[in-house]
């Protein structure tokens, strides 16, 4: 585990803290986006100064996170006092042709903590949790920014041979990735 900067703590999220996800500073300069065509990633130039969350995301995803929490999904957060600075969520609901995958709901690291290994460590913890549940792979529906997709691919993910139909319908522009863990 990376050593946490002074004043930060790592712990499981409580149900009442799920709404804090939307307070994470996801600011990012995006200069490239991927598009998947015929199984191949194609990079396109972009000029996006991302601030905040897309309109409607909290209303869209918060009920899903609550449902997942109630069915035993796994949520971990990095806090400074009561402020959530980084978080990862892994759904306990089986996915995949044989029910052998688990979905990485999210992996968010505040701008101030990026580049310190926190995202890698949280992702590794999610992979370990998937193995504990008997999963063979972790599935991610990743925002198509070059930074995001390159991060996942540098840490064992590859293009999913067949995207999960429900997740693909929800986010068809995302890059659907799979990381084998067992």
Automatic annotation (TrEMBL):
Give the transmembrane region(s): none
The record's EC number reads: 2.3.1.-
Q: Name one GO molecular function term.
A: acyltransferase activity, transferring groups other than amino-acyl groups
Query: Which domain of life does the protein's organism represent?
Result: Bacteria
Source organism of the structure: Alcaligenes faecalis
Alphabetized UniProt keyword annotations: Acyltransferase, Transferase
Protein name (record) = GNAT family N-acetyltransferase
Indicate the segments forming the N-acetyltransferase domain, all copies: 8-182
Q: Does the keyword Nucleotide-binding apply?
A: no
